[in-house]
Amino acid sequence: MTINEQSRITLHFELALADGQLVDSNFDGAPAQFVYGDGSLLPEFEAVLIGMSAGDEASFSMAPEKAFGAHNPSNVQTMARSQFGIDIEEGMVVSFADQAKNELPGVIKSIGEQQVEVDFNHPLAGHTLIYRVKIVAVEEA
User: Fold this and answer.
1) SS3 for 80?
2) 129 and 66 Cβ atoms separated by less than 8 Å
3) How far is CA 38 from the centre of its chain?
4) Of 3, 80, 92, 120, whose CB count within 10 A is highest?
5) Backbone angles phi and psi of 106, in degrees to 5
6) Other beta carbons within 10 Å of 43
7) Is the pLDDT of residue 70 over 90?
8) Range 44-63 burial, b when 16+ CB lie within 10 A, else e
9) pTM (two decimals)
């Protein structure tokens, strides 16, 4: 059976930056399982699997626009340091609430005496990613 829009897919996957830095992998553990279109994977990450079968392996280069988007400079905000009631460090991920009270993670980019720069872009935004898969099983969902 080949992967289509009505498939339950079991696979090993690896995500790496274009320079080879590993971001995530389950090749050393249990494979992941999902139903096509259930939101577990980004649509572009699912689309490249169409037509693959159990035993198939492939690598795909995913441009930022097909992965986590381009880095948007307007998503980097400067905030008053006094707004932070916790000890913060550069690189730290801090949870904020947007106007609708939804959780919004931000990465502390820089800390000044009066201001803190926070990046609300996805950490992988702006990066070309190498997506490697090995299909373990394909079933009808």
Assistant:
1) strand
2) no
3) 16
4) 3
5) -135, 145
6) 10
7) yes
8) ebbebbeebebebeeeeebe
9) 0.80
